[in-house]
């Protein structure tokens, strides 16, 4: 039996590391969804990044913790379903809570609109966020294009440029002429913020549309609360060297 996302009680439990990592884009989605859907009981419980080098080895063998793929994030839906894989979790949320936008005169086929939106999500997640996470683990010298790990930051920059260009073509501040954010906007928002938080130099020269997106996303009541209450983790990955590495990068002008 399917449940209505607008009226039936829905219990969601997210399990992820206490860092931004892969989950941050859909954490923003969940904040907004929980703000508007009072039937939603949503909580996140965290796996401490510190456990990755000691107790996680054992914890990951327990499927009630590490889900079907022995990795995090994991989303528990109503104590009956357990999902793994970042994009799958985000797509389920978008499907259930109407974050695939509305058809417009230009995008008048819902399936094709979903295809456009999914393109942005995949690009932001696979080609920007994942590359930035890998780059932080690889600690490249961001001023030396021959440094191992430089490829990841070059890829992230190139794809952010495409994300900015596509957003600029929209008649609104959101992708594909939408008046409310879709899953695409949450992912592009985090791809842009995460890259900038690694280092401003990694951004493409022109980020005007993404800057505007950041501004409008941060004005949304649930997200404004989230940022004002300092709920965004400073830590981006579970890499033990991250703080020291980002500190070193911050000295580069
Ligand atoms: N393809 C998965 C990858 C998940 C993944 O690699 N998660 C990492 C943390 S960011 C993890 O849990 N690593 C520990 C492990 O695999 O044991 C996704 O996109 O969610």
UniProtKB/TrEMBL annotation:
A biological-process GO annotation: glutathione metabolic process
Boundaries of every GST N-terminal domain copy: 10-101
GO MF assignments: glutathione transferase activity
Signal peptide positions (record): none
Segments forming a coiled coil: none
InterPro entries: Glutathione-S-Trfase_C_sf (IPR036282), Glutathione_S-Trfase_N (IPR004045), GST_C (IPR004046), GST_superfamily (IPR050213), Thioredoxin-like_sf (IPR036249)
Name this protein carries in UniProt: GST N-terminal domain-containing protein
UniProt organism field: Adineta steineri
């Amino acid at each position: 039996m399917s449940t209505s996302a607008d009226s039936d009680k829905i219990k969601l439990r997210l399990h992820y590391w206490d860092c931004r990592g892969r989950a941050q884009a859909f954490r923003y989605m969940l904040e907004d969804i929980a703000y508007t859907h009072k039937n939603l009981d949503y909580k996140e419980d965290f796996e401490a990044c510190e456990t990755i080098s000691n107790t996680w080895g054992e914890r990951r063998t327990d499927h009630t913790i590490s889900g079907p793929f022995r990795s995090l994030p994991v989303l528990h839906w109503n104590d009956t379903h357990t999902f793994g894989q970042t994009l799958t979790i985000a797509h389920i949320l978008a499907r259930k809570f109407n974050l695939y936008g509305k058809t417009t005169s230009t995008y008048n086929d819902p399936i094709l609109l979903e295809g456009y939106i999914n393109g942005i999500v995949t690009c932001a997640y696979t080609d920007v966020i994942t590359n930035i996470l890998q780059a932080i683990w690889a600690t490249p010298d961001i001023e030396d294009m021959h440094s191992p790990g430089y490829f990841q930051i070059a890829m992230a920059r190139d794809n952010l440029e495409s994300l900015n260009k596509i957003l600029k073509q929209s008649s609104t501040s959101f992708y594909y002429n939408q008046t409310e954010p879709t899953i695409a906007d949450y992912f592009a928002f985090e791809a842009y913020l995460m890259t900038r938080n690694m280092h401003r130099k990694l951004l493409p020269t022109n980020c005007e549309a993404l800057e505007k997106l950041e501004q409008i996303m941060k004005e949304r009541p649930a997200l404004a609360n989230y940022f004002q209450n300092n709920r965004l983790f400073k830590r981006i990955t579970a890499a033990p060297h991250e703080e020291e590495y980002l500190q070193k990068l911050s000295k580069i002008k």
